[in-house]
Amino acid sequence: MVRKWQKFFYKIVWELLKTFSMTTTYHISTDELNDEFLQRLKNTFGEKQLLITIEEDDDTFYLLSTKVNRDKFKQSLKELYNGEVVSVTLEDLRK
User: Fold this and answer.
1) How far apart are CA 66 and CA 61, in angstroms?
2) pLDDT the model gives residue 89
3) In contact, 34 and 14? CB cutoff 8 Å
4) Which end of the chain has the smaller Cβ count within 10 Å, N or C?
5) Burial of 46 (C-beta count, 10 Å sphere; 0-12/13-18/19+)
């Protein structure tokens, strides 16, 4: 059974949650900047004022995006610095 004070509390919490701003990051190519993308923005944010900042995306962003990827990347760098590498030629790859 939901008490009167609980309904009041939930209403206050809901109103507070609606006041927080939302930040969303999109990693897209310029080819994807079209009417469909704009419509998705409108659907996501509704009738709100937006601040849009554009910067070039680093193609290697995924290398550091998770702890597992960061650890593997660091391990690979250590192996490279220690000379623990395997050299191959294009001919080797074509075999």
Assistant:
1) 10
2) 87
3) no
4) N
5) exposed
Alpha-helical (H) ranges within the chain are 4-19, 35-45, 67-81, 90-94
| CA–CA gap between residue 71 and residue 77 (Å, rounded) | 10
Chain position carrying tokens 């995924």: 62
35: DSSP letter: H
The distance from CA 67 to its chain's CA centroid, rounded to whole angstroms, is 14
d(CA 37, CA 52): 13
Rounded to two decimals, the pTM is 0.40
Q: 93 or 59, which is more confident?
A: 93
Calpha distance 10→20 (Å, rounded):
16
Minimal CA–CA distance to 14: which of 26, 6, 4, 25?
A: 6
What are the boundaries of each domain within the chain? 25-94
Cα gap 71→78, rounded to integer Å? 11
